[in-house]
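Good morning C.,

I know you're traveling, so I'll keep this short. The sequence:
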Amino acid sequence: MTSSSIAFEKARAEGRAALVGYLPAGYPDVDGGIDALKAMVAAGCDVIEIGLPYSDPVMDGPTIQAAAQQALEGGVRTADVLRTVEAVAATGTPTLVMTYWNPVERYGVELFARDLASAGGAGLITPDLTPDFAPEWIAAADQHGLDKVFLVAPSSTDERIAMTTAACRGFVYATAVMGVTGARASTSDLAGPLVARTRAATPLPVGVGLGVSNGAQAAEVASYADGVIVGSAFVRALLDNAGDRAAGLAALTALTEDLANGVAGGVRA
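The tokens, ready to paste straight into the viewer:
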């Protein structure tokens, strides 16, 4: 397993932000999802987030919901997510799972941590779990050397940011859009101040997720963040080419290259 912090350190040494790419496992099916994620790695993603499809995705926008629902209807299970992690982690790219907490609890927290580490996974991103309610996960992650990525938001107090970042390992996920996820036409003016407040509390790298969908937006976010996190735009590239896998992979590759050029071209603050 490779901690996500390694990828952030490498990007920083190259004078740029890291590109973090997300897709849900099992879309369009398990093997197709693995091919898609490997294409993202080959085209420039530094870190990969693999979504664990869930039946009640309250924080996901319609694009990710649509892909995750298709994956669920196709019968994807947690074992398929772990198989996807293993295939992507084998490329040497830090690979994390992003999941709501309920599936981990049902699987068994210690068992999930063990199996994720065995698959080569770098760690877990838990959008609906906060450190003060996560003692079991923190213990399991520490035992297996997994990254613990918790979220901060514009509404977080300075005290909350300090508590959250103290529990993180790997990087901190700054979600700069209030509400559900999704690609947006413009970036948020809340992101820069949130990154500054987070950096005041921790030396860990700060990745920002706020609906980036093109290289120009990626460059803007890369000017102040350590990582640019992109999800819905990648999923949309596949959804828009449903039924034509070659076209979907080509669209995914082109988008990744555009975003990678963006994070490389962002003028660092």
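Safe travels,
E.
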